[in-house]
Amino acid sequence: MNQDALELFFGTVRQSTGPNDHPATPTFLQNYKLLSIYSVIKPPKTGNCQVLNSEVPKISIDDIKNIYDTDDVSERVKNIEALKLKLSNCMDNEDWEADSIFEDHNYFKSPTVDCVVFNKATF
């Protein structure tokens, strides 16, 4: 029985952890999950594939947050008018649904600074 494929797999997981040559079990499992879906998510470099639906969501949660984040009344009014314009454009198309207008939540995307602070705060 040949173990080359198994050794290649473990070597790939170990290399993906960077300078950590001996990852702990949670790190190994996380990298295993990331590597197992990488080929599915990664777009092909060549081929006859093209994006069929390049439409981006029309309204994001950030658009709504921008209304409440500012103390400047004129800025708030401008953000409300921009949101009203987006909504009226959606209504003019007549082929919309609430799920197609609003973007999925994006509050799980933390900025890099927050990740670094969290990482350093745990030590």
UniProtKB/TrEMBL annotation:
<feature type="domain" description="Transposable element P transposase-like RNase H C-terminal">
    <location>
        <begin position="1"/>
        <end position="33"/>
    </location>
</feature>
<dbReference type="Pfam" id="PF21789">
    <property type="entry name" value="TNP-like_RNaseH_C"/>
</dbReference>
<dbReference type="InterPro" id="IPR048367">
    <property type="entry name" value="TNP-like_RNaseH_C"/>
</dbReference>
<protein>
    <recommendedName>
        <fullName>Transposable element P transposase-like RNase H C-terminal domain-containing protein</fullName>
    </recommendedName>
</protein>
